[in-house]
Every structure is written in structure tokens, then in C-alpha cells.
Amino acid sequence: MIIVMKPHASKESIDHVIDIVKSNGLEVHLSAGKEVTIIGVVGDKSRLSNRNLELAPEVDKLVPVTESYKLTNLKFHPQPTTVKVGNTQIGPGSLTVMAGPCAIESREQLLLIAREVKKAGATFIRGGAYKPRTSPYSFQGLEEEGLRYMKEAKEETGLSTICEVISAESIEAAVKYIDMIQIGARNMQNFQLLREAGRSGLPVLLKRGLSATIDEWLNAAEYIIAEGNENIVLCERGIRTYETSTRNTLDISAVPVLKSKTHLPVIIDPSHATGVRAYVAPLSKAAVAVGADGLMIEVHNNPACALSDGPQSLTCEQFDALARELAPFAALAGRKFHGQ
Amino acid sequence: MIIVMKPHASKESIDHVIDIVKSNGLEVHLSAGKEVTIIGVVGDKSRLSNRNLELAPEVDKLVPVTESYKLTNLKFHPQPTTVKVGNTQIGPGSLTVMAGPCAIESREQLLLIAREVKKAGATFIRGGAYKPRTSPYSFQGLEEEGLRYMKEAKEETGLSTICEVISAESIEAAVKYIDMIQIGARNMQNFQLLREAGRSGLPVLLKRGLSATIDEWLNAAEYIIAEGNENIVLCERGIRTYETSTRNTLDISAVPVLKSKTHLPVIIDPSHATGVRAYVAPLSKAAVAVGADGLMIEVHNNPACALSDGPQSLTCEQFDALARELAPFAALAGRKFHGQ
Amino acid sequence: MIIVMKPHASKESIDHVIDIVKSNGLEVHLSAGKEVTIIGVVGDKSRLSNRNLELAPEVDKLVPVTESYKLTNLKFHPQPTTVKVGNTQIGPGSLTVMAGPCAIESREQLLLIAREVKKAGATFIRGGAYKPRTSPYSFQGLEEEGLRYMKEAKEETGLSTICEVISAESIEAAVKYIDMIQIGARNMQNFQLLREAGRSGLPVLLKRGLSATIDEWLNAAEYIIAEGNENIVLCERGIRTYETSTRNTLDISAVPVLKSKTHLPVIIDPSHATGVRAYVAPLSKAAVAVGADGLMIEVHNNPACALSDGPQSLTCEQFDALARELAPFAALAGRKFHGQ
Amino acid sequence: MIIVMKPHASKESIDHVIDIVKSNGLEVHLSAGKEVTIIGVVGDKSRLSNRNLELAPEVDKLVPVTESYKLTNLKFHPQPTTVKVGNTQIGPGSLTVMAGPCAIESREQLLLIAREVKKAGATFIRGGAYKPRTSPYSFQGLEEEGLRYMKEAKEETGLSTICEVISAESIEAAVKYIDMIQIGARNMQNFQLLREAGRSGLPVLLKRGLSATIDEWLNAAEYIIAEGNENIVLCERGIRTYETSTRNTLDISAVPVLKSKTHLPVIIDPSHATGVRAYVAPLSKAAVAVGADGLMIEVHNNPACALSDGPQSLTCEQFDALARELAPFAALAGRKFHGQ
Fold it and tell me: Which end of chain A is more exposed for a tag (fewer CB within 10 A), N or C?
């Protein structure tokens, strides 16, 4: 950490800051410029966590030098992580495609879609059993019943399964039925839930919060990994901006940024990022080209009647066509894709 | 709801949309312009919730006409609500001031601050027992022990008490010890928690999400009120924008906007909105002038050593001085303030 | 346009609105719902431009149905436009690559870079002669002298030339020396400049404003096209958001959104979008995959000493390597790229 | 400036950076931590402006320590500036109210409004003669004719006059007729215009750009002041955020932030900030309470027929009522207000 003093700060104020730092067992390096004096703090800055140095006299600002996330940080773990889920793996060399309906509506619906996306090349079936909805008057999900259908879909098709969890109870249920759990955007900073996901032992897909910075996102992942669970995949799904022609703004740069900051795999969800079916195919190709490790795509047998997110869902036929288009992009990007 | 067709849409496409609407028991009004045909839907549009009309051929867009929140909507409940908590009330005619430390650190600390803020004119002591922190390596709160100290503070000073809750368990504990619960910004769309807060029977302070629109915020309040709990107070605490000179951007316009959309009281938290102690006093005065029903302010006996949010906390002396400054503004705004 | 009345608006208020509309020579379609009455306005709504109907009693809101941009609108011009510049063309079937330094620093620098980017496959040399800089103490450009070097670069290499203009004088100078002018992000709503660019007769590259919506951007293009100049290319260069790990946030979805709204070509500038050299290559590939008609990339012979934007500039060798990587993506996207 | 090296950077890389700094005539202070080495640069960092140190091997990031704006910086000019315009002054101790129509529509309209706002207590008449409009099909202003009406309004009422300028020509015209010029939000980074405004000799009102940070805004003011013109007033008019219930989001915290960073006066424009008439009065009171030096408010004799911005304009009667309400707030804030 660096402490920047106000211009022409008095020796007394500078000494006061130095005293606080030293009395907490840390060393300082002083750099006295013509106008501004800078105090570098050497050692573990967490020792200063309850000393609010910005309140000391004539302190202008504190500048952090190292990130607050450690276990997810590429600097301390320079090899990319591959996350294993069932027979599949997410990470370098693979293009993982997770597909399925926003909400599980019935056993028949889920099995039908599972068969179709399997045929087209997906390796995961996704589907919501617990639905966080903006309005309390919208469909809220089939809950545990939905998870049982997921298990059945896996048994029939061999696809790996992923569902969103929203509470300790839903994690307990998930452990019994499915392969991977998802923390949704609205819960990215539900720290209680992150810890419980960490302890569940299941691989976790952590979606980016609606307006989370990349640093906050990696700190959220740190909550999971700090519980001993390293099987984390990050999922960019659009951030909130002033632009309204898409539901959110897909931050595609997040992929190369994350590749420079963390060892965890990153996938992209173009369906939630845009909210518009017609934009899913071009953005999926862009995601592969930019270096994402996978895609999460909403697919529905009859989008016009979907109970949730119909307008952004592909039909099974559209998904099949997209998978064919993606295959040569995956090959160019050096990734194995089942659909090939 | 209004359905806007694409320019020169075919009669076939228009009839198709009309058929869907009518087959769901609703009426249409057709408005055929020179280029564009508009179809007004008359009746309860929730009947169309699983018909995704934007996917029908030649539909350009759907335009909602009524809001999705009902019980919190001023249109259907035109009198402002006054929320009663203990011996105090929040709403028209009063300026409620909630003050206290970000985190409860010890029994002594809390009682000391409670006495001081009571003397200065606050009617609520606030303090966090369960702390949602961005990094897992920061102090996470005293939990139930903290709640017991709150109860003690109430018994000694007569102040009403408010604490943030983050899970079903913390709500259960809160019911035993405190007067009002707070849903924090990061949990504004934790719908499970909203429902449980609704069922708790306690008055609820609902903070605005980090990047929530006002409509999403009112829909979140709708989750609570739909459980039969009308004792809801909204708290504006800054939204996320590109500006970094304050931690968040206080959306002060939210106060008059909310006054035109809902009957629920609105308070402002200038401490979290800015993250800087020096800005708390001017923004508190602005909050009173703009018509807020109250303020939530962080006060600490020794901010330089606070375990959380020290840089934005006032000292007890600063809070006392602010209360004196606020009194004439409260009078001008036609609000009773204990500190007067 | 649709006029939505407040719930249970009086007949008098409804009639008052209808009178205003009719007295301006327009027709209405009335749609009286159970709670809300909707008034559709049929005809040219510009006749109501000086009647502020939202101020009429019991009007809730106005909902525009058609866009305010006409000549740039795909609805009224459904074929994609190809813009011809010199011997090259920008639009369907081509991948146009514009490359060069942020600022023209000297004749030697520009000619050296022009030769290198030509060799690698660019068809345009870009370079700033008039530099809009955030601080008045930064390098401001060589002005007309720079334009002369651009002309020389064109004569030697055959590349087309593009420079930013910032005033009527710089447009006058540009007409003498270069092939295409650029309106920068900071001037996207400098309406005076847009009109003058329209009248210049030169093709115009219109960058998206720092926080412009897509609709505002198309309205800005409408200023140019309304002067009779249809040779407009749009350039997405990142928008301002709360995320700080990149200088701006590249809104890659803008490409498919624009393709659904306008007939004008769209290119992407990954250099300004991110401000970081290492992210330029992955985002360039994403841009091609998503369907952009071209790229604008900063290239410098010695980025470590560039007078402007060095950190985001590729070296000539890096650009050459990128061009080789882009070629198969261009082929997959069905676009001809000189570098192939 | 501080240069932060990557963890465990080699001695060679560190020496390379030190060599660059020293060879540019600057000194370094080295602070070697356990993991990270920090290099403090002592001296005038502008000497490094063409050395892009972030590109040197193993450099992690550069951290600026001092601001790039100097003459507008409170650190180097600690007394607040009072700007004199005609017989009035803007700054400490006064509440300046500028009022008038968005666009000057006719001589009669302007004179009528001028008389009314004068009576209510305004000291400035505002009115647009050159209108930057989002769509080219909207009313664009009376230009020089409008400026002449402003002069007439001044002669009759004694009010000071202010108009927006959008080009060198409009500044030339303004010098002949009016007292103060305004640079609008869309031109805040039109650096050519800023320089010309600086050279005009007239006091300048500089509106904040649509999505400008406070630092960019002060750098824009630096362009004006660097031409020797110190008579600058800043005007906060709302920033672009994701919230759509107001046209922009009024960043009221900008007032105390600016007071801590610059000596220039700051006023607030609640009309453009919200776009809604009903919100102007509460926000005006908040602006006075927060410490603004003045207000700019749109007033129209017949908002229902205004050619521009009618929905946000007060009627003359509403403005008069607001002035009466503001007077006691001004008194509380220790500011003289003509309307008292």
C-alpha cells in the first residue's frame, strides 16, 4: 500500500502516519517529492485493516498495490485451472456448451430439450428449478421436482447438469441430484450463499453481478475458494449500462481481462446478456473468437410459450444451426467442441 | 399493454396477434396508422404472461402501460404510509434519524455511541451484526451477540433498533431482539430473503440495490408487501455510475420520483452513498431539503480504528454538530426532529 | 405516438388531448381499458413537436412508436450500404482494416508505419493531425502539416487515408489532402461539425459518443445524411461504464443491434475501447466473428515513445501477426481481407 | 507518480525503469517490498509524457499522485473564486439564479419572461439562440437575432445575460451582445471551443459533459483558464446512468466534491438534470442546502407550447412560487438571494 500525503504536509503529520504503520509491525519507505511525500508500506497490509489511515491529518489518499483476492489470483497460481464435471471438463482446449430452458416447466419439456441439445453438441443441460424473478407475480420454478427431472435427463442423455441455487436449502437439494451449481447474478454478493456453495463440494458456476466490477467478482469467487472448493467457473452475462437496446451490455473484454488476472475458466451467456434471440448467434461466435472456455445458451422447444425468458431463447432447430456454425470457430480457436 | 407492429405488417400477421390476445380472454383496440399498426390490449395482461408476443411474426415491440408493482403503487393507494416502529413513526411530518456504527464491535462501543446519538437527537440506533463484506478476509460481524447488545442499547436509551439481516436464520434471531430489520443493497433482489422479511412481521428498511432501477426497487418491495407486511421504508444509498470521486452516486432525485410513484416513506443514507465523511453533512441537509422522511448516518466513537467503514463515519461530536445544523432545515421542511 | 392517460382519467381530460391532436391535423384511435385509456396518434407526429402533451392534465406518459431517424433507418432503406473510398469499399463482403498511429508525429514515422501496415494487409492508414486531448498540457497534433504527410503516405503506398477533424477549418484542410474524415467520440453531438462534415462531400467515419445510446448515434448520423452525404461508416469504440479494468467497455452487441436498425456499415476500434495493447488481438477476432465490416487499430513503430496512446498501440510486428491470425476468421465470416 | 512492478520482478527490469526515469532528469525512490517493488518518481512527471512506462518489462501499473489540472486546483489556489458578471457576482455569500426559456422563440416571449423572472428574484436571464438538438429535424434556434433580443432584455430589466455558444462564430456574435457564455454538456470536450471561449474574455459557464468525470471536467476548465480567463463557473446538470425515471441523474455530491478540489463556483441545473417539471422545486432546495452557488432554471410563459424542453419548464407563476420557497433556504445557507 502507498500513502500519499497532501502537498506540503507537515513533518508532524508524516511522522504520525509513520508511527501508526510501524507500531503495527510494518516497515515504511519514504519518498519525499518537491510537493508531495509518499509513504510506501512494506509487509502484510491486513495488519492495518482496522487503522483507517485516510483519516490521519494531511493524508490525501491510500493507493492499494496488491489485489485483495489471493487464491483466485493468476499472480500466485499462474497455470490455468481445468474444472472437471462428470465426464467433461471446462478449461483450455475445450469449448463447453451448456444449453437448455430458462425454467424447467415439466418433465416432458426438459427431456425433449435435453435430447435435442445433446444431439447438437452440448455437453451440459441447464434449467432453472428456483427462479429469482423481478416481480413476485411471475412464475417462480418447480423447485426440488425440477431437480429430479434434471437427474432423469442426465441418466437418459449422459449430459452433465447445472441448476441455479438461491439458498442453503436449494444447495442441499442440488447435492442430491445434479453435477454443478450456479450462483446467479443477483446473488453474486450473497456472501452466505457463496460460503455454502464453497462447502457443498460441487463445482460452481459464478455469474457476474449485474453491476459488479471484475475485482468484486474475483473477490466473490474468493469466498468460494476460501472454503477449499477450487472448482469454479466464471460466467459473464452482461452488465448494467445506460444502453437500452439490449437488456444488458455484454462485456466481452472481460474474457481477456480475466485471463490476465485469474486462472479460473470463463464462459459467456449471450442469452441473458442481450435478452434478444437474434443476437445470440453472432455473440456466441464472438465469444469463441475472443477466447471464452464455453457458452451458456437458452434453448426452448416452444419459445413463444416459455414461462420465462422466451424472447431470448433459441428453438431447438436454431440451436442446432448455431452449433454447426460454431464448430469451425471452435477449431480456429484451438478448442474441442462436441458438436464437431 | 400496447403491441407495435413493424411498418407495413401484413394483415395476416396482425390477425395472428389479435387471435392470440383474444384467445386469452382479452380485448384489442386496433389503431392502423399510415405506416404502423398499433394493437392496444385491454384487460389483465398477466393472462399473456406465458405468451411471448414479441416473437410473433412482424411484431416490432411491446410497450407496457401499467407498472408491474401494485400494492406499493401510489396510483392504487394515494395516501402516504406512516410506518410505526416502537414509539416512533417514519413518514410525513417527521424527520427520522438513524445513527450508529457500521459494525457492532463490542458492548461498550455500542452503548457509548447509543448514548451519544440519543443525546444529539437520533431516534434509532443502527449497527451491523451480520456484515456482508466484499472480501472474505474482512471482519464479518458479531452475529447474535451483536443483536443482544442492540437490545441492551434500546433498554438503556429508549432508542428504536435496526440491524441488517442476510438470511432466514438472522431474521429469526432479529425477531427476538430488535425493532426493525434492514435488507441491504446486495440483497435487494434476494427474493427468498424478501419473502422471509415480509413474513417476519417486523418493519423492513429496504435499501436500493447497487444498480437497481426505481421500478426494480418497487418490485422488490412488492415481494415484502405481498406477504402482508406493509411496514416498509425505502432507503436510497447511492447507485453505481462511472464517477469514482464518491464511492457511489447519491441519486437524490429518487426522493421526488418515489413520492410520485409510491406511498412508502423514503430515507437517505449519505454515508454509504459517498464513502467520505466530509460529504455527509452537506448531503444530509440536501436530503432534508429535497423531502426525505429521514436519514441513516454512520457514527463511530473512534473512526480511525473502526473495523468497517471508518472513513465515512462521523465522530459523535461531528454527529452532534450536524444534528444542530439539521434542525432548522427540518423545521423549514415541515418535519419534527427530535434533535430540535 | 401513443398517449397513455393516468388511471381513471376524466372524460374532460381525454377530450382535451384529443382536441389538441385533431386541431393539429392528426387523427386519433381511442382505446379505453378498464383502468387506463390509451390514445393512438395517427399521422406525422412532427406536427405536434411544439405541443408538449405530457403537460396536459391527467396525461401519464407519451410513448414514441417510430424512430426519429429516417434516412439512416433500415426500415426505410432495407439494403445494406457499401461506402466507396478511393479504390476500396467498406461494407458487406469486405473486411476493412484501418491502421496507424494515434497521432502523426513526423513524416518519417508516418511513412514507416504506412509501409508496414500496407504490407500486413491494411487498406487504410489512419493518423491524428488534430488531437482532442483531455488535458491542455498534452501534445495537440501537427495539424495541416500532418495532413500533408498523409497525402504523401497515400501516394507512396496506395493506402486510403483517414484523419479526425474537429472544426470547420480542419474539414477544409482535410478536403485538400485526405480520402475520409473521422468525427471523434467527443464530437459525436457537435451538431455544427456534423453538418459541415455532411456538406464536405467526403466519406465520414462517425465514432460513437462516450456515452451515446445507439439511437442518439443514429440521430447524429442523420445530421450528416440529411446534408445529402450517404457515405457514412459507424465506429464502435467502447462506452463509458462503471468498469475500470478497461478504459471503456466495448459494446460488441452494438454490431448486431445496428445491423437490425440501419443500413450503414459498422467497424470496431478495439484500441480505444480497451486502452490496453494485450486485449486488441482477442477483441479484433471477436469483432470479425460478430459481423463487423472492419477494424480500426492503432499501430506505432515504437509504442514506448508514442506521443499519444502508446500503451494501446501494437508494434508493426504485432500488427503483422494479428493480420495473419485474422485472415481465417475473415474467411469464415465470408469477408475478403487484403491481408489474406 | 508511482510505478508498481509485477510481483518478484527481476533486478534487470527494475533497473531498466530506473534508467528511463533518471535519463529524463528525474529522481527515484525505491521501495522494495517482500513481493512487490514500488518506484516513486520525484520531479515533474510531464518529462515522462512520451515515455510509456507501462510498456516496460514487468511493470504492473502506474499510479498518478498529483492531478493533471493545475490552475483550477484548490491545492494551488486555496481561496474560492468569485466571478463578476455585470453588476452581479457568483460565488461565496450569494445565491445566483439564472432563469429563462430553453430556446429564445421571439422578442415578445423573451421580454415577457425576463420581466417575470426579474420580478421573482433572478439576476440572470438565460435563453438559447443556438440549440444543439439530438435530432436534425428539431428547432435549431434564432441565432444572432436571438442574441439581439437578449441585449434588449438586459437593457429593459437590468438582468445579466447568458447564452450557449457552439462555435467560433457564435462566440464572436456573443461578445457583441451578452454578458456570459455557456459551453453546453455536449461540447464540454470540444477543446477548440474551450480555447476560443478562454480567449473571448467573457465569463464562461461550463456545463458538465453527459458522462464526464469530475476530473475530466476540471481538465476541460483548465483549457479555458490556461488561456488567461479565470472567470469560470461550473454547472452540474445531471450525468448519464442506467436509471431512466429521470432524463439524467443529478450528481448532487459533485458540489461538495468540487468544493474540495477547485476554487471555482458551482451551480446546479435541476431542469436538464431531471427533464421533469415537478422535480425542479425539490431539487432546487436540495441544491441550496448542499452548498451550490446558484441555480439555472428553465422558465417559459407557456410550457405546453415551448419549442424546446417544455416538459421540464416552470411557468412564470411556478418560478415565482419557487423563489419564495427558496428564500429561507438561501438564508439558512448564508447566501444573499435577490428574491428575498
Answer: C
**What subunits touch chain A, counting only 3 or more CB pairs under 8 A?**
B, C, D
State whether the Cα torsion C70-C73-C76-C81 is positive or negative: positive
Q: How far apart are CA A156 and CA D334, in angstroms?
A: 77
The closest of B125, B152, B128 to B141, measured between CA atoms, is: B128
Closest CA to B76 of B293, B264, B231, B265: B264
With a cut of 0.90, is the ipTM above it? yes
| Res. C68: pLDDT tops 70 | yes
| pLDDT tens, residue by residue, B11-52 | 999 999 999 999 888 888 888 877 788 888 877 777 776 678
Whether A242 and chain D come into contact, CB under 8 Å, resolves to yes
* Candidates C26, C29, C34, partner chain B, best to mutate (most B CBs within 10 A): C29
- Whether A34 and A24 have beta carbons less than 8 Å apart is answered as no
Residue of A nearest to D40 (CA): A31
CB–CB contact C253 A250 (8 Å)? yes
What is the chain A residue with the closest CA to B213?
Answer: A240
SS3 B298: strand
Q: Which of D335, D337, D325 is nearest to D285 (CA)?
A: D325
Q: Is D270 helix (H, G, I), strand (E, B) or coil?
A: helix
* Cell matching residue D268: 446546479
Single pTM value for the model: 0.93
B241 chain-C contacts, CB cut-off 8 A: 242
Q: Using CA atoms, how far apart are residues B303 and B103, in angstroms rounded to an integer?
A: 11
Average pLDDT of the residues in B210-220: 96
Q: Is D206 exposed, middle or buried (0-12, 13-18, 19+ CB in 10 A)?
A: buried
Cell of C59: 396525461
* A110/A141 Cα distance (integer angstroms): 13
| CA atoms of B254 and B265, how far apart (whole Å) | 12
Q: Which residue of B has its CA nearest to D327?
A: B332
Q: How many CB atoms neighbour CB C334 within 10 A?
A: 10
DSSP B182-250: EE-GGGTT-HHHHHHHHHH-S-EEEEPPTT--HHHHHHHHHHHHTTT---EEEEE--B--S--SSSSB-
